[in-house]
Amino acid sequence: MLIAGNWKMNTDVPAGRALARNVAAGLDRSDADFSEVDVAVCPPFTHLQAVGEALDGSSVALGAQDVHAEEEGAYTSDISASMLTSIGCTYAIVGHSERRQYYDESDAEVNAKVVQARAHGLVPIVCVGETLEHRRSGDAESVVRSQLEGALDGVDVPRADALVVAYEPVWAIGTGESATPTQAQDMHAVVRSDLAGRYGEDLAAEVALLYGGSMKPHNAAELLGQPDVDGGLIGSASLKAESFVAIAEHATEA
Ligand code: 13P
To answer: Considering the entire predicted model, what is its pTM?
Structure first.
């Protein structure tokens, strides 16, 4: 299980540092056994140093919300994979629907970012997910399959822990309306079978498939209880240590 918090563009640096400390302390205080649950937070780039320091000595991993596809160079405002590894990042979210929507990020760009993350030993959290229109027109599965094809084309995955895929239906993000456990499970099974075709059954069985989209403490147990749901990518509920830790606690029971 992997529970990852995507803080998006929220908190300033002092508030982010405090949130990270509270998450680490909350996990420490909990009676749950987190030995089978990895926990990560993905704050804004500006926070990585401070949050990394706040998490020092804890088991919470650090992730970024994006990574640039190029090694270095004249890309004003962008952040490279080696910058992220040098500051202690383990993960980088790639292809979030907000990047696809607001920055027209294409599958080809997502693919280049995945390749670059892999080349630097960062674990990409590759986001896929259909819009409401796609779901209503019966195209959800084909959209997700084509996003996977775009993102993973030619990507070598030597070990299952070198890749994470997050299924985030766009209509469930920030709406308070999560996918039903059955909808999540059905699409996760599609993702799993796609990965099996690319990397073999054994490796695909071990890749963490996260569900994202209005996962909260009250619905986490049921979503995480689905056989192909291996964790969550949590937006707004990751901005309060209490709710984020509560979701991680549910993961220990799933
Ligand atoms: P919410 O949990 O706020 O719906 O956000 C989900 C998400 O986009 C995580 O990447």
So the answer is: 0.97
Distance CA 65, CA 188 (A): 22
The per-residue pLDDT for range 181-192, each reduced to its tens digit, is 999 999 999 999
Ligand 1 within 6 A of CB of 110: no
Residue 149: CB atoms within 10 A of its CB come to 13
Question: Residue 25: what pLDDT?
Answer: 98
**Is the Cβ atom of 168 under 6 angstroms away from ligand 1?**
yes
Q: List the domains of the chain with CATH numbers.
A: 2-253 (3.20.20.70)
Q: Which of 131, 219, 233 is the pocket-test mutation for ligand 1 (most atoms within 8 Å of CB)?
A: 233
**What integer pLDDT is reported at residue 195 of this predicted model?**
98
SS3 95: coil
